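Readers of this paper often ask what the protein records in our data store actually look like. This encoding replaces a full spatial description with a residue-level series of whole-number codes. For reference, a complete record is included directly beneath this paragraph.
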Amino acid sequence: MKFIFTEWYDRSVKSGCVAEDFTPEVCFNAGKLIEKINRLGFKPVKVFSSCLRSKQSQIRIYKAKGVTDISKIPLGSAHITGEGVDIADNGELQSWLKANVNKLKELGLYVEDFAATPTWVHIQDRAPKSGNIFFKP
């Protein structure tokens, strides 16, 4: 699995992000995250399914899921700061990550519980509040 920054950028633009969303800090965070993901060593080709999100996109996504109370929408999401991405997956990456937890720890990567991500893997390099490598959203 080898990702490049332009792929992250292009996917983010397609999801509605605009120039103002790509601050130097967000781009730095994304570059660091992409480098870590590439160092995992998972070989099959995968594609990003969700990258950077603006706060407006985050609200739109959660409203489409039926969340109407804005206070219940995670506006501190790692997607908004460039510290998290979703990677499309058929279960192969999930299985590989379960068998290679040591690589996640070594690289400082955290993965959302697979029960919440049936067809993708959410990976971030910001530690969740629980501090667990596999965390519940």
About this structure: The two ends are 25 Å apart (CA to CA). The chain has a mean pLDDT of 93. The longest strand covers residues 84-88. Helices lie at 5-14, 24-39, 55-64, 78-81, 92-99, 101-107.
